Amino acid sequence: MNNLKTKINWNIHDYCKSECSYCPVHLRGGTLPPETKDYLRVANLIIDAYRNMGRSIDWNFNGGEPLDMDDIVTLLKLCRTNGDSMELTTNGGKLWMDWWAIEPYVDKLNLTYHYWQNPALIKYIVDTFQKNKKPFHVSVPIRPDHFEEDMKRATDAEETLNINVGKAVLYKNADRAGGMFKYTNDQLMIMSGIKPKPPVPKPVIEPPPPPPPLLQEKIEFEIKTWDQRYTDIYDRNPSYTGKMCNVGVEYLIISHQGWVSGSECNNQPLGNIWHDGWAPPQGPQQCSMKACIYPNDQKITKF
After folding, report:
1. Which domain holds residue 250?
2. C-beta pairs of 153-158 under 8 Å, 24+ apart in sequence
3. Predicted TM-score (pTM) of this structure
4. Which residue ranges in the chain fall short of pLDDT 50?
């Protein structure tokens, strides 16, 4: 059996009908996706290119909201039947009947449970994946100004569905580099699974434990400059400058606008799938980056 794998992370569009209150204004709605036939043409180009290299494909679809695209099932079916796996990130949509057609072509599900979502639909989706013994993850975006409401929705889902539910931190402009929304320290402790302790009336002899990761991230944004933060990142990650990297061969990223990269660092852009004559890459690139800071990029073969 072929064990040469290519992972394709396809942000298929930026279109979403949901209008979540914490989504940045410039990201709400998005542009209508191209026609399904255009997606199928590109998907077939990708499938043929990696098949000719003797490689199989693990697909990962996200958006925007993938289910807001017309006839998403046809694209899912083509890619899954010509690949080894399909991972889908979605808010689940609003219709039960969508999942009768979608579920057979999804091997792993990342489901976001928003404040406007119907709990019964979330339960139906989870029950379906549990019944078919497919992995899934449910996460609830936690709004700092509706903290108790959102945490209750997450804990209610855990109790009702007997699963662990992620509590997702929200970032300004939906960008981690922009820093978190205005959470209190206690809120971040609770989201980290740590119950805040009441104030101690007398001095504590032992040093306090280190803050959980979310609180540490907030502290670093407050006390360090941009240059200091990224110098730290470069210092603690490996460097492959000048080496050849199998980007585009082992890993391919397609943005919602169609721009293609072989790595999260975007060392050398690989064109746009919607431009005439575009074709998938045929070989590795030379690394020109100061450090390899992304975990997925570090997994790509260097030589």
Report:
1. 5-197+209-298
2. 153/113, 153/115, 153/119, 154/113, 156/119, 157/113, 157/119, 157/122
3. 0.86
4. 1
